[in-house]
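User
Please review the sequence:
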Amino acid sequence: MPFVPDDFQPPLSLVVDGFLLEPLGPEHNDDDYDAWSSSIEHIRATPGYPDGRWPRPMTLDENRADLERHARDFAARSGFTYTVLDPSDRSVIGCVYIYPDTQGGDDATVQSWVRATHAGRDAALRRLVSRWLAEVWPFERISYAGPA
């Protein structure tokens, strides 16, 4: 069974409430790397990252390979990762991951994070994404760790 119906068009952007979401790709490598690598402790303390497996130290080239994997998943419609940009200067302030629930209880699992310098925007991003998922995406049951 496909992750999303064939007739569903995954959004290519969302601009609202001081956030700009667009599909994550290798063009975001330098800024994405800076965002998460400067915020490891904050991200690991964010709901949805309990096991400490990510973020993990990696090189800029390893990060690019990871972004290329996320872009392939998006193109294949098997998972959707969005970079979260500040619309005023297009700097990366976080990420949103929408993937199938491999445990089988939900249609999708969602994780998000913001860089430590934007920690005060965690809850706003979570509310925005929760609303967006409910209004636009074709999922009935979503697992999104933490308060909405």
